[in-house]
Design goal:
Blueprint (H helix, E strand, L loop, with lengths): L4 E4 L21 E4 L9 H12 L2 E7 L5 H12 L5 E5 L10 H6 L9 H12 L16 E6 L6 H12 L5 E5 L3 H15 L7 E6 L16 H6 L1 H14 L4 E5 L7 H19 L1
Parallel strand pairs: 1-2, 1-8, 2-3, 3-4, 4-5, 5-6, 6-7, 7-8
Length: 281
């Protein structure tokens, strides 16, 4: 992908399409529809609605935690009927850390039938015209895919995993939120040293747009929290500037539904647009 910015949107507990009106105000052409570890609107159905109503490119998230490979490939074939062929392959969380212990005990059990790299391999097989057990499809798929990366991980085993994702054909990587460009540079340096070649696909570094309210597991956020509590827009511009200086060129701006708080979402979209416009100046 060539876009400098992509935006991850919230997915609601409702099929009410009025809740997606804010999408028309996002100054970004490519959106990620996440797959949440709670009951939400189906990502593929929502992606189709967005592509038709708002003329946006959409990336559909597929979490391996929730389903088996037969269902994943069926979902991909269904999405291709509507010319949706870009998928973000992630492991996903077995349960939301935000759920109470009581609700976690009632939650669905994790599937994890296949790893993310197995799913990527199966998509490559579909692009050659075969399903995961070798049955011939009626036609070859034309899928592209990306995956996730945790910039703070530098262990050899993890570097090998990212290298495998790239070799399997990932077109892009989406990172966890970070607030220190040194963390990014450390990962890139360790990767280059291990494999003697650079990462040539874009890494979209995530920035949460709901700070300081949505950061309970972000890396190093505690060092920057006060900045976002005082002058939020200025803190975001400073963060973007510092990450740019570290050599980061691609970003994933993550919007949060904030329990259906329309004013919060409106503010998030406004700040996201200002960051996108700031990067063009």
């Amino acid at each position: 992908m060539k876009e400098k910015f992509i935006v991850t949107i919230p997915v609601y507990k409702s099929g009410n399409t009025k809740l997606t009106k804010y999408i028309s105000e996002i100054n970004c052409n490519t959106l990620i529809v996440p797959q949440i570890s709670s009951v939400r609107a189906d990502p593929s159905s929502l992606a189709y609605h967005i592509s038709q109503k708002y003329n946006k490119s959409v990336i559909i998230t597929i979490n391996t935690v929730d389903t088996n490979l037969r269902f994943i490939q069926s979902r991909i074939l269904g999405a291709e009927l509507f010319k949706l062929n870009n998928f973000l392959i992630t492991k996903g969380d077995a349960t939301s850390l935000q759920k109470s212990p009581e609700k976690q005990s009632k939650d669905s059990k994790a599937v994890y039938e296949q790893t993310t790299t197995k799913v990527m391999s199966s998509i490559n097989q579909m692009n050659k015209g075969y399903d995961f057990i070798g049955n011939e499809l009626d036609s070859k798929t034309n899928c592209v895919f990306g995956s996730t990366i945790e910039i703070n991980q530098n262990e050899i085993k993890y570097l090998n995993l990212i290298n495998k994702k790239i070799k399997l054909g990932s077109s892009y990587l989406v990172s966890n939120p970070i607030y220190d460009g040194c963390m990014y540079n450390s990962f890139v340096k360790n990767f280059n040293k291990k494999f003697s070649y650079p990462i040539k696909i874009p890494i979209y570094v995530s920035i949460r747009m709901n700070l300081p309210n949505d950061s309970f597991y972000d890396q190093n956020y505690h060092n920057y929290k006060k900045n976002f509590e005082s002058n939020k827009l200025n803190a975001y511009i400073k963060l973007l500037t510092s990450l740019n200086h570290a050599g980061i060129t691609n970003y994933n701006l993550v919007l949060s539904d904030s329990n259906n708080d329309k004013e919060s979402l409106k503010e998030q979209v406004m700040i996201a647009n200002k960051l996108i416009n700031f990067s063009k100046s």
